[in-house]
Write a structure and sequence with these properties.
11-stranded mixed β-sheet; 5% helix; 10-stranded antiparallel β-sheet; 325 residues; globular; 27 strands; Beta-galactosidase, Chain A, domain 5; mainly beta; 44% strand
């Protein structure tokens, strides 16, 4: 049953990939830096993609294969066996607040400042002439058929993003699960981060311009979202070199029944099929597509999406769509 669900997810991925970009022209190194933990609220899963050539790629968040039969969700935090006393803490430079700093009929941005954060807060967020400083969390909301939905979040101060599709008809909302990092990924202590100087949102293209602290730039664009998946296009102005990753998944795994991601499948260059494995013992490899998700229900963030990294390319310019003449 689990194998069938994974194959359903991979089949859906194959169908969804074709109309947007051509197949990857770069095979990336996939590196697993995950480590076992007992705490379900600690990101112990790290899957990195490394290549000194990639300038463009896609990220997909897709509902798990079992979503159609899910009628009860669970996204309550589980602090069992968790000890966060050693985490760094920095007080916010401004009082905690919530601010809606962009709004249209279809989309709006909501920012939050928390009392503390684990890093200093010097990244700015910009929309037109509006500049917000020190925000710890920014949410992108979209108007749906009968209500609004939070679809995408970014933590500007450490570069973590989370994405999810529109919820299926039987659920009012779904959970976030895994996070991802985009850009020149470096270590801050034990945690991988992306150091961002400024994020600028362009409402006309539904895209985020990323100015990184190393002087490079990138763009993350919401290419499309529906009740099945969200697709994000990422373009970098130069490849990430020096053996550093340009995209990474951060997630949680405690047991097969308590995780946000449990399995990985990669398409290796020239292979006739997918290489499918449990994620924690995965030893890495070369891949043109990377799927990370679940094949059975977890009691933690049960509805959270599978994540896919794909369509890696040296060319920053996407090919013309088939429907364009």
């Amino acid at each position: 049953m689990r194998a069938n669900r994974l194959r359903l997810a991979l089949f859906a991925l194959a169908l969804s990939a074709a109309p947007v970009f051509a197949a990857s022209d770069v095979a990336v190194e996939v590196k697993n830096e995950s480590e076992p933990v007992l705490c379900a609220e600690k990101d112990n899963v790290t899957i990195k993609a490394i290549s000194p050539e990639v300038r463009r790629f896609q990220i997909e968040a897709a509902h798990p294969a079992y979503i159609a039969g899910l009628i009860r969700d669970n996204w309550e935090a589980d602090w069992t066996a968790c000890d966060m006393t050693g985490d760094p803490v920095f007080a916010a430079v401004t009082p905690p607040r919530r601010v809606t700093f962009y709004e249209s009929i279809e989309y709006w941005l909501v920012g939050y400042t928390f009392p503390t954060f684990w890093r200093p807060s010097d990244t700015t967020f910009k929309v037109g002439d509006r500049v917000e400083k020190g925000l710890h969390l920014v949410q992108l909301w979209k108007l749906g058929k009968d209500r609004s939905h939070e679809l995408l979040v970014v933590y500007p101060q450490d570069g973590y993003w989370r994405a999810r599709p529109m919820p299926p008809s039987q659920l009012a909302a779904t959970a976030y699960g895994s996070s991802f990092l985009v850009g020149p990924i470096v270590q801050d202590g034990a945690r991988p981060v992306v150091n961002i100087r400024e994020i600028e949102f362009d409402p006309k293209t539904t895209s985020f311009k990323l100015s990184f602290k190393d002087g490079s730039n990138g763009t993350l664009k919401l290419e499309g979202v529906d009740e099945n998946r969200m697709v994000l296009d990422v373009v970098l102005d130069r490849p990430v070199t020096g053996g550093n990753a340009f995209v990474a998944l951060r997630s949680m795994y405690v047991t097969e029944g308590n995780n946000d991601v449990a399995h990985i499948a990669i398409r290796e260059p020239g292979a006739k099929g997918w290489r499918e494995e449990k994620l924690m013992p995965f030893t890495g490899g070369k891949a043109t597509d990377i799927w990370m998700g679940r094949t059975t229900h977890s009691r933690h963030n049960t509805s959270s999406p599978d994540m896919v990294f794909r369509n890696f390319s040296k060319d920053p310019n996407p090919p013309a769509r088939a429907d364009k003449k």
